[in-house]
DNA sequence: GTGCCTAAGAGTTTCAGATC
DNA sequence: GATCTGAAACTCTTAGGCAC
């Protein structure tokens, strides 16, 4: 392996001069810098990250504890987030282990900061190891349900936008496909907002307004929609808790020969480009993944630079109207 | 054999000082 | 003042020496 000492020997300068030249220090003559860069290129020099982090006390790596790799919206977000962090000079390490196991690994690898997805924040069992966290921690989602720095979307407001949009189109029998049970505060806040906004607008709210599901994946959406279509008087519009659930709804509708939006208007949470490419270009509420990724990356950078800082950042959602929602026939 | 302590080593950055 | 050098420092692991 080529080190700065090898380059120094070849260039006939000290290794501290090589270090400064490669870092662009203005106290090194331009011609010396050029010569050192040329030799470094010739010798195939690659900086030793371990040694560099020894001095800087920074690894340049950010650990992300991710809930699952199976959900479309999350894949979209992780891709954008990785781009944003790379642009700021960080390497991303992703863990889909239990939170406590992930924290242990990230401590070992000396992450500069760790991002935790709010899905985990209600699970006290998994959070038992969080006290041993040696890096700044940022939680995405579930603001108010934990004491850590947070970036969160105003999910309740997003669902309110969806309810208002459908009400304006004349729908009064609207269902929400979400998960009322369990310990995920990010889902609970959406359901509470749905019920509150529906009551405020004088819409019909009953036991069938919330479609109970086991998880947030396509299959869960399919099973719930199947049950809904079997009711004697199914709703004319549905708000879905996420893109994968929406896929499940479309599959169930297709199998029954139902059309979206003619027979059922659909509005989905998750403001991601993928919504444009579903069976029906889908009306979506939320914050764009690009904006979320950019804000998270900036917040992580801030936490690394000022580790004592406590951040709470709320993002306001928008509605993007597409052809999956229409006026009640 | 076990336990404890100390020194060395890894590659890089950065500060203080030397040279021109 | 510009440019460069030398040495210390960073953290952790491993090896060697010593006492029991």
UniProtKB/TrEMBL annotation:
Residues 2-56 form the HTH lacI-type domain. The keyword Transcription applies. This is Transcriptional regulator. It comes from Paenibacillus agaridevorans. Keywords: DNA-binding, Transcription, Transcription regulation. One of its GO terms (molecular function) is DNA-binding transcription factor activity. It comes from the Bacteria. The lineage of its organism: Bacteria, Bacillati, Bacillota, Bacilli, Bacillales. Gene3D superfamilies: 3.40.50.2300, lambda repressor-like DNA-binding domains. The keyword Transcription regulation applies. SUPFAM superfamilies: lambda repressor-like DNA-binding domains, Periplasmic binding protein-like I.
């Amino acid at each position: 392996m080529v080190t700065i000492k090898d380059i120094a020997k070849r260039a006939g300068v000290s290794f501290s001069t090589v270090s400064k030249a490669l870092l662009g220090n203005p106290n090194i003559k331009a011609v010396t810098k050029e010569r050192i860069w040329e030799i470094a290129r010739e010798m195939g020099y690659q900086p030793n990250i371990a040694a560099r982090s020894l001095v800087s006390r920074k690894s340049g790596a950010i650990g992300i504890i991710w809930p699952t790799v199976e959900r479309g919206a999350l894949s979209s977000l992780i891709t954008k987030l990785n781009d944003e962090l790379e642009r700021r000079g960080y390497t991303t390490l992703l863990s889909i282990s239990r939170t406590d196991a992930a924290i242990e690994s990230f401590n070992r690898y000396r992450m500069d900061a760790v991002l935790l997805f709010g899905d985990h924040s209600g699970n006290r069992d998994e959070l038992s190891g969080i006290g041993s966290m040696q890096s700044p921690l940022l939680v995405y989602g579930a603001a108010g349900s934990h004491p850590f720095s947070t970036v969160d979307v105003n999910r309740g407001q997003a669902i309110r936008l969806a309810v208002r949009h459908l009400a304006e189109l004349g729908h009064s029998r609207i269902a929400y496909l979400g998960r009322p049970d369990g310990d995920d505060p990010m889902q609970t806040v959406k359901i509470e907002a749905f019920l509150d906004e529906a009551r405020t607008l004088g819409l019909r709210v009953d036991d069938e307004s919330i479609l109970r599901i086991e998880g947030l994946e396509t299959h869960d959406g399919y099973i719930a929609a199947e049950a809904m279509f079997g009711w004697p008087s199914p709703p004319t519009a549905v708000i879905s808790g996420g893109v994968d659930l929406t896929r499940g709804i479309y599959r169930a509708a297709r199998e029954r020969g139902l059309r979206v939006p003619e027979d059922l208007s659909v509005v989905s949470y998750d403001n991601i480009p993928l919504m444009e490419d579903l069976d029906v270009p889908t009306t979506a509420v939320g914050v764009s993944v690009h904006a979320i990724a950019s804000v998270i990356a900036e917040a992580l950078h801030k936490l690394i630079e000022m580790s004592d800082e406590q951040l709470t950042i709320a993002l306001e959602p928008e509605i993007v109207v597409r052809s999956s929602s229409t006026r009640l026939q």
